[in-house]
Amino acid sequence: MGLFEKIRDGLKKTRDALFGRIDKLLKSFTKIDDELFEELEELLVMGDVGMYTAEKICDELKKRVKEEGITDPSEIRRLLEEVVTGMLSGGQELDISTKPSVILVIGVNGVGKTTTIGKLAAKFVKDGNKVTLAAADTFRAAAIDQLEIWAERAGADIIKQNEGSDPAAVVFDAISSAKARGSDIIIADTAGRLHNKKNLMGELAKINRIIDRELPDSAKEVLLVLDATTGQNAVNQTKEFREAAGITGIVLTKLDGTAKGGVVLAIKEELDVPVKFIGVGEQVDDLQPFVPEEFARALFADESSVAEPAPAENKPDDETEQPEKTEEFRPATADIWEQIDAEAEAERQQLEQDEEAKKRLEAEQQAKEAAEAERLQKREERKSRAKKRNWSTSAAENTPAAEDDDWLKSWREGADSQ
User: Fold this and answer.
1) Which of 52, 112, 170, 363, by CA, is between 20 and 30 Å from 123?
2) Measured distance CA(47)–CA(37) in Å, rounded
3) Phi then psi for 275, rounded to 5 degrees?
4) What is the bridge-based pairing of β-strands 185-190 and 101-106?
């Protein structure tokens, strides 16, 4: 199966859900008018393209229709493919121009970050590069184990330390090893703890300082791995990570399992972050470099043009071809993923518990501080009254709050008598 066929098949759900509806819409109109563009914009928004991007696409289409004098609604399909291609173009090339080049890979748990690193490593090794992997996600032992499996499968070197080690130290060791072994590319797996942006920024800043110091002239990419099935949430993640990490590109995984592939447009147009790789399947070679022209062509591919399988030849009864029995594909790292999912859920629950405990402690501390402030205030008030009546300060301090002084008793008796 060729590159285009892989992308076309991987985008089938998005094509059927979004651009299939657009086809039906265009066929239902006999002329191009505002109503057509309004319904087109609505379909684009529903397809996770985003309001801003949908409006921009329709504005560009209106402009092209006017400039080219188009009156046939079916021509909108061709224009739409060209507009989408233009929007997605630019910045998608991966910069690995130096030896070694460095790729930092970040992303929240569960998006396929470590698997993406393994597939990237396999691709680079297949292309004749020597690759060193840095297991710098030291917060989860499963991440290190999984990366080891991928390193072995891809034929890459791996540098690791024990769970809980300093991620920057792992990257430093990887750089030293890459220099000694003559590696072409260093790929670093990093922790994707978006729930604490300050710690994430601090960790990545430390790693970047190590890279800048040890490889000051190296090409460096910071790739954010996103799960396409999350739709517009992927846009929100990109915003957060862009502020925290200065990302240079996106790897969009699981496009074959979602109808929300339109989010690619929103990420590129709204955030000006290029998509550099897309994942359209579970196999190693299903992680493909992002080519805007091929992507747009696959989105608008005519299903009727897909060749039907050739008819089976007549065979003797005893040689009748039986349906091929295929085992359900299960990635070699499936057990690792189950462990990762369990640990991610346990980590989330632990974070919630820690947050609740922190709030309780803060509330208790605030109550103690308020009680102490009230005690000190009353103490100062007694001192002030004692001074006015020429009492000794020590006497005022030793006077119980419930029996503050004689004047209070007299006041009460006077008040009671009124």
Assistant:
1) 170
2) 15
3) -85, 125
4) parallel
